[in-house]
Write a structure and sequence with these properties.
It contains four helices and four strands, in the order ββαααβαβ. By secondary structure, it is of the alpha+beta class. It has one domain. Strands 3-2-1-4 form a four-stranded mixed sheet, sandwiched between helices. The longest helix is centred in the middle third of the chain and has 17 residues. 31% of the residues are buried.
Length: 95
């Protein structure tokens, strides 16, 4: 898997993101720890825009970016929380 923001290998997962695509599909994917750190310094609106672009990139090639699709928003959000918890992260992003 690779990070949909920086396109580097996802060696250390950072933020687990739950997003809704333009075709109303709910997905979950991860961004790397470096992008997560860089994102924390950005204004909220910029973070949302970056995560939205990352979701579009991730949906272009789901296998490459480790995208999981879910039936609804609640299922995707719950999966993101569980994945983050299992990975030892407690930060979840919603785009």
């Amino acid at each position: 898997m690779i990070c949909p923001i920086c396109k580097r290998p996802l060696r250390v997962p950072g933020r687990v993101v739950s997003a809704k695509t333009t075709d109303s599909q709910h997905i979950v994917f991860s961004i790397c720890a470096a992008c997560t750190r860089a994102e924390s310094t950005l204004p909220k609106i910029t973070q949302v825009k970056r995560l939205h672009r990352a979701a579009v990139v991730a949906m272009a090639d789901p296998a490459r970016y480790g995208v999981e699709a879910f039936d609804g928003r609640m299922n995707a959000n719950m999966a993101a929380l569980l994945i983050a918890d299992l990975a030892g992260h407690h930060k979840r992003g919603v785009a």
